[in-house]
TrEMBL record:
PROSITE patterns the UniProt entry points to: ABC_TRANSPORTER_1, ABC_TRANSPORTER_2
SMART domains hit by this protein: AAA (SM00382)
Pfam families: ABC_tran (PF00005), TOBE_2 (PF08402)
Subcellular location(s) of the protein: Cell inner membrane
Taxonomic placement: Bacteria, Pseudomonadati, Pseudomonadota, Alphaproteobacteria, Hyphomicrobiales
UniProt main location, coarse: membrane
UniProt protein name: Spermidine/putrescine ABC transporter ATP-binding protein
InterPro entries associated with the record: AAA+_ATPase, ABC_SmlMolc_Importer, ABC_transporter-like_ATP-bd, ABC_transporter-like_CS, Mo/tungstate-bd_C_term_dom, P-loop_NTPase, Transp-assoc_OB_typ2
GO function term, MF aspect, one: ATP hydrolysis activity
Amino acid sequence: MVSVSLSGVTKHFGGAPVLDDVSLDIREGEFVALLGPSGCGKTTLLRLIAGLERPSGGIIAIGGKAMAGQGTFIEPEDRNLGMVFQAYALWPHMSVKDNVGFGLSVRKVSRPDRARRIQAALDIVGLSGHADRRPHELSGGQRQRVALARCLALEPGLILLDEPLANLDANLRASMQEEFRRVHKKTGTTFVFVTHDQAEAMALADRIAVMDKGRIEQIATPRELYERPLTSMVAGFVGRGAVLPVHIVGHADSGRLRVDIGGRVLEMPGVNGTARGWLSVRPEHVEITQTAANEEQLPAIVEHVTYRGGLYEIGLALGADRKVKLEAHAHEPVSPDCLVGIKLKKGWVLPAPDLH
Ligand code: ATP
């Protein structure tokens, strides 16, 4: 297992930067997910680590050794890493064990050593009983496991995975997520996993680097991202809930911030910042009742309601010009045009200097 370090990495393909001053330290044996919307630069970042692209600026090191930047460039095959892609690209005419051993033959690994490593890799992914099958005799999930075994057989210190589960149906995806987690634990190899699916990143990663427009917005554990997002993009992209604009009007003795939302002042913990803030609230901390609002509640008018399996997405008007969208568990049915009371039991305020 090896560490990965990126320092001030930029990448242009001619025009505007696709990656802009990205710095990231991944520890030995860590499972890190790169998460972000389509086009934010996740795959480009992974390809730079792999050596399939050269950075326009900055330094990339693997295992403490410079791989790219400042006049250095180490070829992908000399970086001691393996890659698993969405398209598993197995050789259709070869058996599972020959597919898994292919990279070892290319590297001229001796026959006995090759057999041992193929067996070990197939054991890890639970496919030793299928060594003589051809890819077309396997399910999609099994084929992806062969692709993972092919990568494990090389015994790399680092495994890079680019949306490897994107082609699989939801059930298979969930069981393969467990499989990846188990393989990671068993091998102790450093994993860097690209996904645009926040639930997948949460389920898999020790830490998640949330990316947007070529930059890393925040890198933290899934729990920290959920409970303590540092930007409104992270608050909105990771987990469900709502991000509401608030006015920070002071501090309470408890050190919490006093925020004005829709004319009511609430106390919430948060990052001490500017006069404006975003209040990030999660569905489990929102209570919506049909009764007229009391002191603790914000009065609002329901504009629309969509059921989202266990949760409702509710569009609300808080006063004349403030519209918000909340995801909440509604214990009582709510319908458009109702006057409701919203109680926010918990939230987290982050600075929003650019909010007007
Ligand atoms: P997705 O989830 O859709 O795969 P991503 O976050 O992985 O997106 P990238 O594939 O890294 O995003 O692409 C980031 C941006 O860089 C996109 O705007 C893309 O068009 C551009 N880009 C990527 N590779 C190249 C290339 N070889 N030449 C020119 N532009 C590129």
